[in-house]
Amino acid sequence: MLGTQESLKAIDTAVAVNIEGSLNVFNAVRRYDVPAVYIAVGNHWMNNPYSVTKTTAERFALMFNKEFGARIAVVRAYNAYGPGQKATPVRKIIPNFIISALRDQQLTVYGDGLQVMDMIYVGDVARALVVALTTDGLDYACVFEAGTGRVTTVRQIAELVCSIVGRGRIEHLPMRPGEPPHSVVLADPRTLWPLGIDKFVTLEEGLKLTLPYYERFESRHLIQV
């Protein structure tokens, strides 16, 4: 179950899906002795139902590896973006920024916009997941952090989107529930070196690869925000 703010309204569902659902998979992995990848979160330290439940499942995965010899690669996918990402019902930053800019509307930045987000292109995340699943002899006690390690604030991301799209403007609103101000969600990309991954699509390149997807759908009036 996705969403920081959304999970606050459905804590029991978040527990049932993100913890109990994951345990169903982990037990199957153990029973049939097959490898798996668990997609964890970059904001694992935040105290909201989404982060708490996802990180609880992450720890269970590591426990299954240690106690039962399971082969569950834990990959923390940081702030993934790219073509195909939905703007609703969970408000993801890049789709909402791009769509607002295309409509020459305000890009909503919560707080002062100095929160740090490690943005990683979807193709790089997919590569990390595939390699983690298919590589033999991994250290399954480790956590792989799928992020670039680049420090980028929410305000900088909004400004970059406006620059690439060529329109749009920024508005600031109070912080949303469950999200601390001035948070830093930043990966250590060195954890991906055992997977042979050390290069990433830059945010500028990734946004240019992503923009045509939303331009195409926006031109057909298929996107609702």
Can you walk me through this structure?
- The protein has 225 residues and is an alpha/beta fold.
- The chain has a single domain (4-219), classed as Rossmann fold.
- Helix content is 44%, strand content 16%.
- It is built from 7 helices and 9 strands; from the N terminus they run H-H-E-H-E-E-H-E-E-E-H-E-H-E-E-H.
- The chain has helices at 4-8, 11-32, 49-68, 93-102, 122-134, 154-165, 203-219; strands at residues 36-41, 72-77, 79-81, 106-110, 116-117, 119-121, 143-146, 169-173, 184-185.
- Strands 1-2-7 form a 3-stranded parallel beta sheet, sandwiched between helices. Strands 3-6 form a two-stranded parallel sheet.
- The longest helix has 22 residues, at 11-32.
- It is globular and about 55 Å long.
- The two termini are 20 Å apart.
- The model has no long low-confidence stretch (mean pLDDT 93).
The domain tally reads 1
The run of helices and strands is HHEHEEHEEEHEHEEH
Task: Describe the largest sheet.
Answer: 3 strands, parallel
Main structural class = alpha/beta
Average per-residue pLDDT, rounded, comes to 93
Short note summarizing the structure:
By secondary structure, the protein is of the alpha/beta class. The protein has a single domain, classed as Rossmann fold (3-Layer(aba) Sandwich). It has seven helices and nine strands; from the N terminus they run H-H-E-H-E-E-H-E-E-E-H-E-H-E-E-H.
